[in-house]
Every structure is written in structure tokens, then in C-alpha cells.
Amino acid sequence: MATPKKSSKDSAPGSKPSQAHIAPLRSMTGYAVETADLAHAQIILELRAVNSRFLDLSFRMGDDFRALDPLLRERITRAVQRGKLECRINMVPREDAALPSELNPALLDQLHGLAKAAQSRFTDARGLSVGEILRWPGMLGDNTIAPETLHAAVLEKLDAALVQFNDSRAREGDKLKTVLLDRVTAMRGHVATLRPRTPEIVAAFREKLSKRVEELINSPDPDRLHQEVVLFAQKIDVDEEFDRLLTHLDEIERILAQGGAAGKRLDFLMQELNREANTLGSKSASLDFTQTAVELKVLIEQMREQIQNLE
Asked: pLDDT averaged over the chain?
């Protein structure tokens, strides 16, 4: 039976994702603002976010918009996966809104009669101020906005704000990606510099050990010789640490190329890199190994700080 040919769409293991499947790498910090101009008012919608382990949503908005809470959460959750995000919705009167030429006479008479009736019962009560009268609902005509109009405007501006918000986070993510790749290159450089010198370092350590063994052979304590041999075997075996370091760096580059919500995966890899650097330092057969382990740990910590800001 003939083996079916593999489709050209199937990607080989370890291959880079196609351009169509690359998602942007995003920072968790971002800001966006959108405004909607209605007949008598302006709606201002703001999104701002900072770092968080999970998606933490909060809203600051008036009662006119409370009914939108479930829809707002649903749309934001589809677009944002991590971060402490605050959504603010304010409605303010438009400065260019035309005022009516006169007050509502029927409402004014009714309000005047009610105010007099109240003062006849409560003689110490103060009268209504001009500002209170002008702000009375309907006194300047019907300037109310239908809830359907308000809600439609808010949802439209939220969609636009999320695009702006994610674009700004993607730009920041690109900068963080460049920083991380620079650190990966620096780590590869340290490994590439030290690894070819490993035989030379081991040879120098072997010569030093040989002299020590000669001293121990004449010693009455055979356990000391055994300890020195075991210690030497541990110190010269660093190939596994180098291999794992390079494998982790390959995986970091793959994740960065793939994009998307990569913060948690990269943070885990930082733990693995740190473990290999610690092991390399503990097996130090020379000062060069110790210095390289320290440099690697510095670079890993710099990467970890930047990764804390990735979605």
C-alpha cells in the first residue's frame, strides 16, 4: 500500500511559523482613547493597562452604561488575555451644543408651584437656585439621549479603542522582542567562546589534579584520593549544560518568532536557563567557567525583567 504524500501545508517539526500564522507579541502595558460626538454630549472611552499575572478588568462609568458591563467584558476578553486593565467611560456636555432660546414654560410653572407648596410647609427651606432650575431635567428642552444610541456609540468606540490599544501593545512588544533576542545572542556568544576552550581548561585542571594525586598517593588516607577523582569527574562534564542552554535558547527564539501570548512560557524558560547557569557555575573547573556562569545569570535576569511585561 502506497504511503500518502505529505501535504505541502504540513510544517516540519521545528520549522518557523508561516507569516500568516504569526501573532503579534504584545506588552501588557497600553493606553487608548476614543471619543464619540452625539447631539448634546460627548462620550470619552479610555483603556489603560499595566502588568498582572492574569486578566483583571475594572470599569469606571456612570449608571447610563452599567447595562453594558457583560458586553464590554466579553469584547475585551476576546482581545486581551493578560494585564490589569481599566476601562473608563465618561459622558460630558458638548461645548458647541446650542442652548434653547427659552425655558420650558409648563415645566417652569409646575416647578414654581411645587417649590411654593414645599416652602409653605417648610418655612426654613431655601428656594431653588438658578443653576438648579436650569439643570432640572427637561427644563432646556429634550436633551436626553436614548439608551440604544448611547450603547451603540460605546460599543463602536470600544472596538476602535481595542484596535488602537492592541496596536500600541504590539509596538511595545516588538521592542521587547528585540531586547530579548539581543540577550539570547549575547548568551550564545558566551557559550560559543567558552565551549571550544573546554578541552584546554580540562587539560589544565587535569595537570593540576595529577600533581594533587601524586601527593595523595603518598598519603595514608585513600579516601582523599577517591574524593578528588569524583570531584574531577563532576567538574569536567559540562557538555550537557551547554547543550541544554542552547536548546532553551532555540526554544526562546521559536516562541518569539511565533508570537502571541508568550509571557508565561518564556518565564518558565527563564527558570530552566537559570538552573543550567547555576549548574555550570557549581561545576566550575576554572575562573572562566565561574565568570561565564555569572554573565549568563545577569543576562537571564535582564530577560526575566522584560518578560514580566509580556502578555
From this structure: 81
